[in-house]
TrEMBL record, chain A:
This is Aspartate aminotransferase. Pfam families: Aminotran_1_2. Keywords: Amino-acid biosynthesis, Aminotransferase, Cytoplasm, Pyridoxal phosphate, Transferase. Its cofactor is pyridoxal 5'-phosphate. PANTHER family: ASPARTATE AMINOTRANSFERASE, ASPARTATE AMINOTRANSFERASE, CYTOPLASMIC.
Automatic annotation (TrEMBL), chain B:
PROSITE patterns: AA_TRANSFER_CLASS_1. The keyword Lipid biosynthesis does not apply. Its cofactor is pyridoxal 5'-phosphate. PANTHER family: ASPARTATE AMINOTRANSFERASE (PTHR11879), ASPARTATE AMINOTRANSFERASE, MITOCHONDRIAL (PTHR11879:SF22). GO terms for molecular function: L-aspartate:2-oxoglutarate aminotransferase activity; pyridoxal phosphate binding. It comes from Buteo japonicus. Its main location: mitochondrion. CDD domains: AAT_like. GO terms for cellular component: mitochondrial matrix. Homodimer. This is Aspartate aminotransferase.
Length: 399, 393
């Protein structure tokens, strides 16, 4: 069977000649290899050579230089919230850890005390772990909001807005900041504006999951547009950030929960309660990954190098998208394939149905999710033709 | 507004103090005789090996680095352990001791339906209570520390444990009890095991100081191994923060001893389901360093020497503190300082005396009178003895 993404490498049947692993949740080079970012290699060497460094405990909330820089990346250098001193940061174990700490806080302190009945809305579909995070944090009423329109292969904006209109006031909405997982379909800026307007009117709480900043479009600012827009509209919000993909630091578990509050006093209160939650979960976060990110983000030269590395990854994905689409269109594969290039980020919802997916796996040894989700990073110039032909076969042979 | 964390808050107050004679006897991190953090040589060597190998950064499995978890189990159980050799255990990587404890607490809350009660020794590490509480369990206590003698209240402990409702959960510190430094002797452990077995209790061992207590990893794990040999299927949390100095790298492990390898597989699958919504998969760096040390014969030998070195320095500071107190002219009995073991010492000082040590002498410790002996050096042991004498005479 297929291993869930992000849990380790799925096993490829031995001796199978042509295979394509399209269900990993990690970047791959055009040679199909993992890629340690050059800037990361450089900074790791700097850290290794620095004999003044030790392995002492970090503070409970994490490495200060990491926290400040990580939140600055999400919110922008000129963020009004930063200027007004009303942001807080919690270094966390990856994006998952940031989500979990945020969820635990909201369950204890949001919308009353220990109000486990506050509805939590997760997009349909979403990353499958979102549900478990909020369930395990104690929430009892987890709902979905309309998101993916399978018929038109795009965003079901009206369904989404309707769900927000009907949601009880103060409900929590998990929003993907960019590069929606698994559909790759993001609202346009105009659509985000409509979403924000409803959320403001209905007093809904935005909890952003930002796992792909920079990785989606190649531009950090562009990929953070939605989060920053909400901040400029005066929202209090959480943003769970992951540096797994955009720094390629998957196994060092580098994440950050950015808190945007009404005022500085509120931030301090929130952080003091976050400390208590962190203390009983992991006490204090791991040091290595945070050091790498902090060092990179606080040096103008290394920061520029990093942005270049991120753009390299994003550009390769964008290239694979356009190459796959043009092959399918040249083959005359039934259906429309513009969604392949309109979608963004690591994942694409191809629109293949479960039977077609089964054909891809069993007959063509191309491994993708039953939902039809593929990881564009698994595509290479060498396997593009094979994958395109296989999709063509699947769609024409199987209905 | 949440109150400052009692333990880590001490370090933060210490940092703000400008007195040149200040001493941080709060948080439990080892210091060398110059009062500096100590990065073990075997750790530096392991790091050099890692740097030269240029490995990728792909996600670990949810349960962690396999070479690390297997070596952790072997370290705790002993290579000749029947439980280890038969594979009737599961070990998952955890975020140091806290994270491993929390995995176990969550696991018990979800699957141990016989009881919601966790019995802690009185006193226990301050963070035990909120960890179990946040996991959804209830806290109870059994007598442990006798403040009159500053040693183990063994009859009190046995009496209380004999009355614990069957199938409750009992937490035991494997060695170097935190905060008191008071450990049972082996004959006492044997009686505890018999009692715990009689009451059919679920035993949760917290082992954060293997090697660090006596200087001998096998001696420090003796109680854990004895209990398992008596047929008690314990659960266990391990930390490498102190014994390998890997504090900020968060290397730890959680182990469940099972009836057989099949049960171990089932338990493992449930542990993964608990871990994934917490942080998906654990951080690699610390576990990889620990794994290289444990699995490379030369480095493992070097580690055993270094951990004994740390333990020996602690023991020597205890001895010097007592002799300095005598020199100051203190008439109190300070024998408990050398009877106790491990990083911490329950001095017997009262909150008002601790307050004076902080305010008048810039000597920082937790209100319960616990000192971290690791913060004592040959350079400041005299000052410490002097200050303690001033507030207790």
């Amino acid at each position: 069977g297929q291993a869930p993404p992000g849990t380790g490498r799925p096993s490829v049947p031995p001796g199978v000649g042509r295979t394509a692993l399209l269900l990993l949740a990690a970047y791959r080079t055009d040679e199909g290899q993992p890629w340690v970012l050059p800037v990361v290699k450089k900074v790791e060497q700097m850290i290794a050579n620095d004999n003044s460094l030790n392995h002492e405990y970090l503070p409970i909330l994490g490495l200060p230089e990491f926290r400040a820089n990580a939140s600055r990346i999400a919110l922008g250098d000129d963020s009004p919230a930063i200027k007004e001193n009303r942001i807080g940061s919690v270094q966390s174990l990856g994006g998952t850890g940031a989500l979990r700490i945020g969820a635990e806080f909201l369950r204890r302190w949001y919308n009353g005390n220990n109000n486990t009945a506050t509805p939590v809305y997760i997009s349909a579909p979403s990353w499958e772990n979102h549900n478990s995070v909020f369930v395990d944090a104690g929430f009892k009423d987890i709902r979905t909001y309309h998101y993916w329109d399978a018929a038109k292969r795009g965003l079901d904006l009206q369904g989404l807005l309707d769900d927000m209109e009907k949601a009880p006031e103060f409900s929590i909405f998990i929003l993907h900041a960019c590069a929606h997982n698994p559909t790759g379909t993001d609202p346009t800026p105009d659509q985000w504006k409509q979403i924000a307007a409803v959320m403001k009117r209905r007093f809904l709480f935005p909890f952003f999951d930002s796992a792909y900043q920079g990785f989606a479009s190649g531009s950090l600012d562009k990929d953070a547009w939605a989060v920053r827009y909400f901040v400029s509209e005066g929202f209090e919000l959480f943003c769970a950030q992951s540096f797994s993909k955009n720094f390629g630091l998957y196994n060092e578990r580098v994440g950050n929960l950015t808190v945007v509050a009404k005022d500085a006093d509120n931030v301090q209160r929130v952080l003091s309660q976050m400390e208590k939650i962190v203390r009983t979960t992991w006490s204090n976060p791991p040091s290595q990954g945070a050091r790498i990110v902090a060092t990179t983000l606080s040096s103008p030269q290394l920061f520029a190098e990093w942005k270049g590395n991120v753009k390299t990854m994003a550009d390769r994905v964008l290239l694979m998208r356009s190459e796959l689409r043009s092959r399918l269109e040249s083959l005359g594969t039934p259906g429309t394939w513009n969604h392949i290039t309109e979608q963004i980020g690591m994942f694409s919802f191809t629109g293949l149905n479960p039977k077609q997916v089964e054909y891809m796996i069993k007959e063509k040894h191309i491994y993708l999710m039953a939902s039809g989700r593929i990881n564009m990073c698994g595509l290479t110039t060498k396997n593009l033709d094979y994958v395109a032909k296989s999709i063509h076969e699947a769609v024409t042979k199987i209905q | 507004m949440g109150p400052p964390d009692p333990i880590l808050g001490v370090t933060e107050a210490f940092k703000r103090d400008t007195n040149s004679k200040k001493m941080n006897l709060g948080v439990g991190a080892y210091r060398d005789d110059n009062g500096k953090p100590y990065v073990l040589n075997c750790v530096r060597k392991a790091e050099a090996m890692i740097a030269s190998k240029k490995m990728d950064k792909e996600y670990l499995p949810i349960g962690g680095l396999a070479d690390f978890t297997r070596a952790s189990a072997e370290l705790a159980l002993g290579e000749n352990s029947e439980a280890f050799k038969s594979g009737r255990y599961v070990t998952v990587q955890g975020i140091s001791g806290t994270g491993s404890l929390r995995i176990g607490a969550n696991f018990l809350q979800r699957f141990f339906k016989s009881s919601r009660d966790v019995y802690l020794p009185k006193p226990s590490w301050g963070n035990h209570t909120p960890i179990f509480r946040d996991a959804g369990l209830q806290l109870q206590a059994y007598r442990y520390y006798d403040p009159k003698t500053c040693s183990l209240d063994f009859s009190g402990a046995m009496d209380d444990i004999s009355k614990i409702p069957e199938k409750s959960i009992i937490l035991l510190h494997a060695c170097a009890h935190n905060p008191t430094g008071v450990d049972p002797r082996q004959e006492q452990w044997k009686e505890l095991a018999a009692m715990v077995k009689k009451r059919n209790l679920l035993v949760y061992f917290d082992m954060a100081y293997q090697g660090f207590a006596s200087g001998d990893i096998n001696r420090d794990a003796w109680a854990v191994r004895y209990f398992i040999e008596q047929g008690i299927n314990v659960i266990l949390s391990q930390s490498y923060a102190k014994n390998m100095g890997l504090y900020g790298e968060r290397a730890g492990a959680f182990t469940v001893i099972c009836s057989d390898a099949e049960e171990a597989k089932r338990v493992e699958s449930q542990l993964k389901i608990l871990i994934r919504p917490m942080y998906s998969n654990p951080p690699l760096n610390g576990a990889r360093i620990a794994s290289i040390i444990l699995n490379t014969p030369d480095l493992r030998k070097e580690w055993l020497v270094e951990v004994k070195g740390m333990a020996d320095r602690i023991i020597s500071m205890r001895t010097q503190l007592v002799s300095n107190l005598k020199k100051e002219g203190s008439s109190h009995n300070w024998q408990h300082i050398t009877d106790q073991i491990g990083m911490f010492c329950f001095t017997g000082l009262k909150p008002e005396q601790v307050e004076r040590l902080i305010k008048e002498f810039s000597i920082y410790m937790t209100k319960d009178g616990r000192i971290s002996v690791a913060g004592v050096t040959s350079g400041n042991v005299g000052y410490l003895a002097h200050a303690i004498h001033q507030v207790t005479k």
